[in-house]
Amino acid sequence: MGLDDKIRNAAEEAAGKVKEKAGDATDNEELEAEGQADQMKANVKQAGEKVKDAAKDAFDRD
């Protein structure tokens, strides 16, 4: 996983948290749900990158 990808995914997750909190504070359920979706999307991307890293490490050991 490249450093750029890690930073980008972390920023996307943080932005999702901000959206979720803003939606909660303003009773805007749509914004809150959008923030949660952004966080989940970032987490899925991070998990995919971790799988790629694990596979790469496994092949590099051979």
From TrEMBL:
Q: Which residues form the CsbD-like domain?
A: 5-57
Where is the sequence biased in composition, kind Basic and acidic residues? 1-24, 47-62
- Domain of life, per the record? Bacteria
Q: Which InterPro entries match?
A: CsbD, YjbJ_sf
Q: Which residues form the signal peptide?
A: none
Pfam families in the record: CsbD
Q: Which family does it belong to?
A: Belongs to the UPF0337 (CsbD) family.
Q: What is this protein called?
A: CsbD-like
Q: Which organism is it from?
A: Arthrobacter cupressi
